[in-house]
């Protein structure tokens, strides 16, 4: 790191467990973020600000007026722009040392398997369970660790999966049938149920914190720990998941 970077990240470097080595690890890290909306905005902005060296943003959508209530990477004069291009503009302005690679497309299992080979961590910031199953299978195939976050209404959740860890469950262990049951509401998100703007910000920030701890070597998260957030009642709780013996994704 040069002198400007040392000053930029000086408050990080002071942290126990981070130091210069941890900051260098962030600089050398490559993270893929699926979704550049309510969750992906704070995640991407904090990872860029924190000094993650390369961010790949994946999202097929364009900025709409209804997004601006919560998707803080986008602004009013970018309506109609690809979300990944809009987010990339914000991130580059925030930190020119961060390389941002936008992919204006819908991630599929085959596309992910091809592009995850050089990725250190995947962050699921989508609002659709069907996409998460494709992420799940691609991460299993490539042994890519990933955090899945979700937020809707006044609630949110966060969980970490690591296919390289024999004790880790997978997304289908948690939700076996969302993509098979037409009544499950697998595609329901903010457009159907609404969401309080800061809820996605808080959950996204928690996802960013966990990602930075992992990438810097400060602390390794516990696999399969499902964190549930009820913002209406201001209550948080966690559950420990185990691999399912009948899982058709990770046990096949």
Could you describe the 3D structure shown?
By secondary structure, the chain is an alpha/beta fold. Helix 4 runs parallel beside helix 10. The mean pLDDT is 94. It has 10 helices and 8 strands. It has an 8-stranded mixed beta sheet, with helices on both faces. The protein starts with a helix and ends in a 12-residue tail after the last strand. It has a single domain, classed as NAD(P)-binding Rossmann-like Domain (Rossmann fold), CATH 3.40.50.720.
Average pLDDT taken over every residue? 94
- At the fold tier of CATH, the topology name is Rossmann fold
- Taken in chain order, the helices and strands follow as HHHEHEHEHEHEEHHHEE
Q: What profile does the largest beta sheet have?
A: 8 strands, mixed
pLDDT < 50 stretches: none
What would CATH call the class?
Alpha Beta
How many domains is the backbone divided into?
Answer: 1
- Rounded to the nearest angstrom, the distance between the terminal CA atoms is 44 Å
Computed CA radius of gyration, to the nearest angstrom: 17 Å
Instruction: Tell me roughly what share of residues is in helical segments.
Output: 25-40%
């Amino acid at each position: 790191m040069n002198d400007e970077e040392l000053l930029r990240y000086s408050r990080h470097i002071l942290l126990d467990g981070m130091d210069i080595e941890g900051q260098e690890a962030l600089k050398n890290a490559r993270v893929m973020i699926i979704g550049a909306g309510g969750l992906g905005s704070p995640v991407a902005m904090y990872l860029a600000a924190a000094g993650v060296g390369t961010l790949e943003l994946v999202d097929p959508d364009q900025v709409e007026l209804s997004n601006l209530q919560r998707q803080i990477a986008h602004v009013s004069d970018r309506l109609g722009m690809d979300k990944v291009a809009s987010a990339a503009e914000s991130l580059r302005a925030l930190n020119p040392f961060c390389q941002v690679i936008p992919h204006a497309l819908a991630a599929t299992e085959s596309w992910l398997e091809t592009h995850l080979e050089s990725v250190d961590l995947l962050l699921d910031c989508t609002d659709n369970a069907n996409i998460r199953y494709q992420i799940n299978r691609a991460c299993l195939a490539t042994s890519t660790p990933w955090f899945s976050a979700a937020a809707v209404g006044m609630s949110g959740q966060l969980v970490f999966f690591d296919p390289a860890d024999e004790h880790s469950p997978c997304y289908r262990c948690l939700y076996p049938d969302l993509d098979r049951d037409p009544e499950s509401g697998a595609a329901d998100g903010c457009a159907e149920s609404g969401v309080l703007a800061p809820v996605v910000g808080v959950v996204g920030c928690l996802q960013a914190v966990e990602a930075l701890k992992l990438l810097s070597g400060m602390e390794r998260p516990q696999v399969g720990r499902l964190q549930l957030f009820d913002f209406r009642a201001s209550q948080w709780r966690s559950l420990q998941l185990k691999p399912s013996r009948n899982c058709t994704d990770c046990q096949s």
